[in-house]
Design brief:
The protein is an alpha+beta fold. It starts with a helix and ends with a strand. About 10% of the residues have low confidence.
Length: about 200
């Protein structure tokens, strides 16, 4: 009888330890999932909203920006200029403190953008410039409208100064969109600047 009692006590103790451990594991996993939902949902929700705006921005904006990730074209501030990965041809003119590429939109020499990456003294990325040229002023107006709609979602509200639209709400990035069209060359200048 005493052996049975000891065996039952021993099994009960094991059962209590098993239930206690299972309960701890369950609450630990559940807590991690909820923290993941609350802690990262804002970021992933914002990323999804930005992605949706990018997908609605049109083929040309998508071709120029490459994706909705990073500041633009999947780039983040502070990366080494030497580590830039672009599958584009180098532009004819290269800046002293960076790299410049040309992205053609079609087979003509009329529709293209020069993309210039500029760095600080430590060769870290601090500025990305787009000199975008198209054939007609109406294309400029359409592109400007599509960029503005997308950038409002990605970088917040903008302000207008003369013919410039400026985004400054983002703590890391300032964006300037400007119609630089001349009678002969319709175009847009789009600049992304590191703020800190």
């Amino acid at each position: 009888m005493r052996k049975d009692f000891n065996r039952i006590s021993h099994l009960t103790a094991k059962l209590i330890v098993l239930v206690f451990t299972s309960t701890l594991v369950f609450y630990s996993c559940n807590s991690t999932q909820e923290n993941g939902k609350n802690g990262t949902s804002n970021t992933s929700e914002l990323d999804q909203i930005t992605l949706n705006a990018w997908e609605k921005s049109g083929d040309l904006v998508q071709k120029i920006t490459l994706s909705s990730k990073g500041v633009i074209r999947n780039k983040v501030w502070g990366i080494s200029i030497d580590s830039l990965q672009e599958k584009l041809e180098l532009a004819e003119n290269q800046p002293a403190n960076g790299k410049s590429y040309t992205l053609y939109f079609d087979d003509s020499d009329l529709n293209f953008t020069d993309i210039t990456y500029l760095s600080d003294d430590q060769h870290k990325l601090t500025e990305i410039d787009f000199d975008i040229f198209v054939e007609t002023k109406s294309q400029v107006d359409d592109l400007k409208e599509k960029f503005t709609t997308y950038l409002q979602v990605k970088f917040g509200a903008s302000k207008t100064e003369g013919n410039k639209i400026i985004w400054e709400k983002d703590k890391n990035t300032q964006v300037i969109l400007q119609d630089v069209s001349t009678g002969k060359d319709p175009g847009i200048k789009l600049v992304f600047l590191r703020k800190n």
